[in-house]
C-alpha cells in the first residue's frame, strides 16, 4: 500500500528486518509521529480501527469473531489495535497457526492496561519504537557525518551545516511531526500546539479511563517543560505546581506521568552505569525529556523568537532536540542512548551504547564558547572509565548548533547537529 508522498524513515529498514524474523510487528509511538504511514507503506492490506464508518462493526466483530478482521493480503496492517485489545491474542494465535513470518503489522499510540492481553506475544510479535522525525529525516540535516561511520572508525568529519541558529529554533518549535514538515511558518508551528492540547484535554484521560484534571495536567507539563534535560525530581515538579496555589500529591504526579508515558509523550533519558577505575558514585536519576521538544515550547506558549531571547533555556531545549535525534540514529544502529553523571559532578549529556558493547560520549553545546570546557569533560570521563571492562570509547563528540564540523587536536570531534545522520 505504498503512498506517493511517503517520506522515508530510518526505521523502515528495522521494520523490514522484523517482518522477516517475526510473525507480526508492533509499531509503538506517540500520535502523529508517522506510524500509520510507515506501516501502510510496508503493508498490502489494512484495517483502520478508528475508521468512523466501520468502527462500530469492527468492534462488534472483534468481540464475536476477531479472526475475520485478520483476513487480507499480508503483511496486513491493524491500525490502532488497542481499541480492541482482544486482537493482540487473535494475532498471536493466527501467527502460531500460519507458521509464517511477516503476517501482521500492528500500530498503537497508547499502551493498554496491563491485564488486557493473555499472552505477551514473545517469539511471535516483535516491537519497534517510532519517534517523531529527526532532522535528517525531515531533510534539514545534510547527513554528512554518519553515526555508523564514526563507530566504524571514520574520523574525517570536516563538513559545514546548512542550518542557522534561527532555523534550528524554528525546527525545534515545529517538531518532527510529519504533518508539520510540509507546512510553512505559523501553520507548521500549530501542529505541536494542537497535539499538546489534545493530550491535556483528552488523550491523557482516555489511556486508562481515569479522568484527569486538565488544569493539573497543563501545570504538570509546564513544570516538565521548565525542567527539560535536567534530573529534576517529582518533589521539584510538585513544588512548581503548588507555587500556583494548586495542591497535588506525589501519588497523583506519578499517576499522571505514568499515563503520559503510556501515550509515549514523556520519554526520560536513563542513566548509564559503566565500570569505573575509581569508586566514584554514579547518579542514577533519569533526565526529563518529552518525545519531542516542541511539546515543551507548545505548553509554555513560546515560539522561535521567544527561545532565541532566552538563550540559556534554548540550550536545554537544544539538548532535548539532540537526544531525540540521537535516539533515532542510535536505534538504526541497534543502540540506545543514556546520560552520565557522577557524584563529583562530571557528566556527559548523551552516551550512545550499541548492543555489541561499543560506546561513545557526547556533550551538547548550542554555541562555541563552551566547547573547550566540554572537551575537557569528555576527556576526563574517558580517563575515569575502566576500559579493560568497558572497552575504549569509539569516539568523543561535541554536538553544536554551529556551522562547522572538525576534529580537534585532542581527538574530540565537534559536529553540528544539522550534519548528523544514522
Provide a descriptive summary of the structure in words.
Helix 9 crosses helix 10. The strands form three sheets. This protein has a seven-stranded mixed β-sheet with strand order 7-12-13-11-10-9-8, sandwiched between helices. The chain has a five-stranded parallel β-sheet with strand order 2-3-4-1-5, with helices on both faces. By secondary structure, it is α/β, with parallel strands linked by helices. The protein folds into two domains: 12-129, Rossmann fold, CATH 3.40.50; 145-421, no CATH class. It contains 16 helices and 14 strands. The longest helix is centred in the middle third of the chain and has 22 residues, at 185-206. The radius of gyration is 22 Å and the shape is globular. The chain has helices at residues 12-21, 35-42, 55-64, 86-98, 147-151, 165-174, 178-181, 185-206, 214-226, 234-242, 250-262, 294-299, 304-309, 311-332, 371-384, 387-390; strands spanning 24-28, 45-48, 76-79, 104-108, 125-129, 145-146, 159-160, 335-341, 347-354, 359-365, 395-400, 404-407, 413-416, 420-421. The mean pLDDT is 93.
Task: Give a concise summary.
The protein has 422 residues and is an alpha/beta fold. The chain contains 16 helices and 14 strands.
Layout: helices, strands, pairs:
Blueprint: H1 12-21, E1 24-28, H2 35-42, E2 45-48, H3 55-64, E3 76-79, H4 86-98, E4 104-108, E5 125-129, E6 145-146, H5 147-151, E7 159-160, H6 165-174, H7 178-181, H8 185-206, H9 214-226, H10 234-242, H11 250-262, H12 294-299, H13 304-309, H14 311-332, E8 335-341, E9 347-354, E10 359-365, H15 371-384, H16 387-390, E11 395-400, E12 404-407, E13 413-416, E14 420-421
Parallel strand pairs: 1-4, 1-5, 2-3, 3-4, 6-14, 10-11, 11-13
Antiparallel strand pairs: 7-12, 8-9, 9-10, 12-13
Helix pairs in contact: 9-10
Amino acid at each position: 500500500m505504498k503512498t506517493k508522498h511517503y517520506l522515508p524513515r530510518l526505521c523502515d529498514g528495522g521494520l523490514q528486518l522484523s517482518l522477516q524474523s517475526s510473525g507480526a510487528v508492533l509499531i509503538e509511538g506517540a500520535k502523529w509521529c508517522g506510524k500509520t504511514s510507515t506501516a501502510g507503506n510496508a503493508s498490502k492490506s489494512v484495517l483502520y480501527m478508528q475508521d468512523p464508518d466501520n468502527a462500530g462493526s469492527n468492534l462488534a466483530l472483534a468481540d464475536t469473531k476477531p479472526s475475520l478482521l485478520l483476513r487480507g493480503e499480508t503483511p496486513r496492517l491493524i491500525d490502532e489495535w488497542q481499541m480492541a485489545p482482544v486482537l493482540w491474542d487473535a494475532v498471536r494465535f493466527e501467527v502460531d497457526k500460519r507458521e509464517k513470518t511477516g503476517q501482521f503489522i500492528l500500530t498503537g499510540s497508547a499502551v493498554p492496561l496491563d491485564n488486557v492481553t493473555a499472552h505477551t506475544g514473545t517469539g511471535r510479535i516483535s516491537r519497534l519504537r517510532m519517534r517523531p522525525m529527526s532532522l535528517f529525516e525531515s531533510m534539514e540535516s545534510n547527513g554528512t557525518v554518519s553515526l555508523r561511520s564514526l563507530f566504524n572508525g571514520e574520523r574525517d568529519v570536516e563538513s559545514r551545516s546548512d542550518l542557522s541558529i534561527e532555523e534550528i529554533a524554528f525546527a525545534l518549535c515545529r517538531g518532527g511531526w510529519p504533518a508539520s514538515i510540509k507546512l510553512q511558518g505559523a501553520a507548521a508551528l500549530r501542529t505541536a500546539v494542537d497535539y499538546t492540547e489534545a493530550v491535556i484535554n483528552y488523550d491523557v484521560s482516555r489511556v486508562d479511563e481515569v479522568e484527569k484534571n486538565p488544569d493539573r495536567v497543563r501545570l504538570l507539563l509546564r513544570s516538565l517543560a521548565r525542567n527539560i534535560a535536567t534530573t529534576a525530581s517529582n518533589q521539584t515538579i510538585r513544588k512548581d505546581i503548588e507555587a500556583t496555589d494548586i495542591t497535588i500529591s506525589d501519588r497523583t504526579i506519578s499517576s499522571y506521568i505514568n499515563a503520559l508515558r503510556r501515550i509515549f509523550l514523556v520519554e526520560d533519558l536513563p542513566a548509564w552505569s559503566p565500570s569505573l577505575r575509581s569508586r566514584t558514585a554514579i547518579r542514577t536519576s533519569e533526565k526529563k525529556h518529552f518525545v519531542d521538544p516542541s511539546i515543551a515550547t507548545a505548553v509554555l506558549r513560546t515560539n522561535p523568537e521567544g527561545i532565541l531571547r532566552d538563550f540559556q533555556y534554548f540550550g536545554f531545549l537544544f539538548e532535548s532536540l539532540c537526544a531525540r535525534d540521537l535516539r533515532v540514529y542510535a536505534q538504526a544502529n541497534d543502540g540506545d542512548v543514556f546520560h552520565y553523571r557522577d557524584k563529583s559532578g562530571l557528566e556527559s549529556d548523551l552516551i550512545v551504547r550499541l548492543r555489541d558493547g561499543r560506546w561513545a560520549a557526547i556533550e551538547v553545546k548550542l554555541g562555541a564558547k563552551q566547547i573547550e570546557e566540554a572537551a575537557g569533560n569528555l576527556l576526563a570521563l574517558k580517563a575515569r572509565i575502566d576500559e579493560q571492562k568497558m572497552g575504549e570509547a569509539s569516539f568523543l563528540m561535541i554536538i553544536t548548533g554551529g556551522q562547522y564540523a572538525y576534529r580537534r587536536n585532542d581527538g574530540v570531534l565537534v559536529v553540528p547537529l544539522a550534519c548528523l545522520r544514522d
